[in-house]
Every structure is written in C-alpha cells, then in structure tokens.
Design brief:
- The structure is a single chain.
- 29% of the residues lie in helices and 15% in strands.
- With 180 residues, it is α/β, with parallel strands linked by helices.
- The chain has a single domain, classed as 3-Layer(aba) Sandwich (Rossmann fold), CATH 3.40.50.
- α4 crosses α5.
Length: 180
C-alpha cells in the first residue's frame, strides 16, 4: 500500500516566487514580481490531488502581503493556507514551527511534504519534525540562487528525501512515494 501524502507545503521566496535582489520591502509592493519557472504548471498538476500550503518566514511581508504577491502572479488560488513563522512566534529553522503548522493544517508529519530552497529551513527542520523534504536547487538560469552557492547537508544532519533542479520534477517524486 502506498504512503498517503495529504499536504504538500511550499516555501515562498525563491521556491514559488523569485526574490529579486535589487528590491526591498514587502514583495507585494515591488514594481515587478515573478513566479519561479514551472510554479503555475506544478501547482495546477498537484491541486485536487493534495492540499497545498505555503510555509514561510514571510521576510518583511505580512500574511496578507504574501497573499497579495502570490495573487499578482495568479498563484494564491492554489493554497488552502499561508502560515508565516513570525505569526507563530517560531523560527522556520525550528522543527516546532513545522509541528505547529501541521497542527493548524490538521495533518500528521508522515502525511506532509515540504518543498523549498533552504537546506536549513526547508529540509533539516522539516525532516526533524517528521515531514518528507524536497530540496529545490533551481538551475541558475531559473532566477534562484546558484546551485553552487548551496552547502551540502552536514554529516549527521537530516538529508533531503529528494533534490530537484526543476519544479516539474515534483509530481513524479510524489507519485513514486505514493506507490512505495
């Protein structure tokens, strides 16, 4: 019998939307915003199969500003919930953040997957909380941080369950896990 995945959680900056280095302040107010390549296609493919959520620090943005930024690239409609670490009073690098977020979502850790570009915040902490984690290391031309700038997991630290270079790889990984 396959492992039942109920919720797929996404990081916001440089996972769903490009963080433009020359911009400051909340992303919702930037003159231009961009979705990461393939984000719309992958969310369309996953909607209906899984509940989708955004788990993020939010940077300088409030929850409403995160939603506004997502709305500007037509991604907000895919997400059941947006959960910001600062609203919970927990750092995203703290496994307790993921436990609290899953409590809000009504989901067991074993039934959740976290997808994000930060090894420490999106992989290590999520794995320590019992979620599966997909480390998104976008190709440099996709607008994310250069893959070479990312450190490999330290010895003894949780490693990603999967590493992807393109969001289009995600549905296949989830299918494989569902059929294990």
């Amino acid at each position: 019998m396959g492992s039942l995945i109920e919720v797929v959680c996404f990081d916001w900056g440089d996972t769903l939307m490009k963080v433009l280095p020359d911009q400051t302040g909340p992303m919702a107010g930037w003159p231009e915003v961009e979705a990461m390549p393939g984000a719309t296609r992958v969310l369309r493919a996953l909607r209906g199969r899984y509940r989708l959520a955004v788990l993020t620090t939010g940077g300088e943005s409030s929850e409403e500003q995160v939603r506004q930024a997502l709305r500007r690239v037509d991604l907000d409609r895919y997400f059941e919930r947006l959960i910001l670490s600062r609203n919970l009073g927990l750092a995203k690098s703290d496994p307790e953040f993921y436990r609290a977020a899953l409590s809000i979502l009504g989901c067991r850790p074993a039934a959740a997957v976290m997808v994000g570009d930060s090894l420490e915040n999106d992989v290590v902490a999520a794995r320590q909380a019992g979620l599966r984690a997909v480390w998104y290391v976008p190709r440099p031309e996709s607008g994310g941080e250069a893959a070479g700038a990312r450190a490999a997991p330290a010895r003894g630290r949780p490693e990603p369950d999967a590493t992807i270079r393109d969001l289009a790889e995600l549905p296949g990984i989830l299918d494989r896990w569902e059929n294990e």
